[in-house]
Design goal:
This protein has about 300 residues and is an alpha/beta fold. Helix 6 links the parallel strand 8 and strand 9. It has 8 helices and 10 strands.
């Protein structure tokens, strides 16, 4: 079980860089950030871009993996995103993981002036986005026509530092997304079942995650892939447990252990943000980072 953190891009870099450096000092496997234009209760406050933030983080860290949880097609195009990712992978020395999902109906969905896509439209776009991005990151030149995303002689030399490309962590719970995770992912990401967040129980959440994991295994079997090849990442804070696992090291180890039994190989926790949904005791957060991994080994 690996332990990672998520650092929201809400602080100017002069302050934020200390958080990214501290994440490496604490021994986290990876430090991720959200790839949004704005997000929920932070919409009317500072919010910085994911790729520049990760680029800056790469220059002040040495070994910790960095990435997005998650990027989506809501305001991205595979051709331009591929160029940014190849550059970011180079600057970081091959430490980038791309968390990628179909996106939702939040603020990003209409920021470019379009109508919010239906779930079917998001799935259709995601189904084109991921395969094209895969080609763009592994081939020197790509021409591919598409309904939603096309590339014409798109050049991406020299490619990624990581070969054949940087890893994809695909966020998905539906059948089409899980099939993309099975075919293109090096990891699968979930936040649990959102329908259980308000009124569900931790026990119901564990069962929902078990069912999702079983559907992932079935998707892998369908495409002829061994499900054990995929890492399984749980992004915390969105299950009925909410912040209860972050109240103590023992509470977190119990939570993480229950999910390790489901096959999860990585858990991502949010860096503390006062007066928010992630209002966690910084001292407990640091104790979890330094003490929990040994208990979960």
């Amino acid at each position: 079980m690996r332990l990672s953190t998520v650092i929201l891009p809400i602080h100017p870099w002069g302050k934020a860089q200390k958080t990214w450096r501290r994440a490496e000092d604490l021994g986290f496997h990876a430090a991720y950030t959200y790839d949004h234009l704005s997000w929920r209760s932070f919409r009317d406050g500072p919010w910085f871009g994911a790729v520049p933030t990760l680029t800056a983080a790469a220059t002040v860290t040495q070994s910790i993996r960095l990435g997005t949880l998650v990027t989506s097609p809501n305001f991205r195009h595979p051709v331009t995103l591929a160029k940014e990712l190849i550059s970011l992978d180079d600057i970081s020395g091959g430490r980038i993981t791309l968390g990628i999902g179909a996106g939702g109906s939040g603020f990003d969905a209409t920021a470019l002036g379009q109508e919010a896509w239906t779930p079917r439209e998001r799935a259709d776009r995601f189904g084109e986005f991921v395969p094209l991005l895969d080609r763009l990151l592994t081939e020197d030149a790509v021409t591919q026509p598409g309904t939603h995303y096309s590339a014409v002689e798109a050049r991406n030399i020299p490619g990624c530092v990581q070969r054949p490309r940087l890893p994809f962590a695909v966020a998905a719970t539906g059948p089409r997304g899980l099939k993309l995770a099975a075919r293109y992912g090096q990891a699968w990401v979930t936040t649990g079942d959102p329908k259980l967040y308000e009124t569900g129980t931790p026990e119901q959440s564990v069962e929902a995650l078990r069912e999702q994991s079983e559907r992932l295994a079935a998707a892998c079997e369908e495409v002829g892939r061994d499900a054990s090849e995929l890492d399984r990442i749980l992004l915390t804070g969105f299950t009925p447990d909410r912040n209860a696992p972050m109240e103590s090291v023992d509470a977190f180890v119990d939570f993480a252990g229950r999910h390790a039994e489901l096959g999860f190989t990585e858990i991502a926790i949010h860096a503390p943000i006062p007066d928010s949904d992630f209002d966690i005791d910084p001292a407990v957060y640091e104790r979890i980072a330094t003490e929990a991994p040994a208990q979960l080994a």
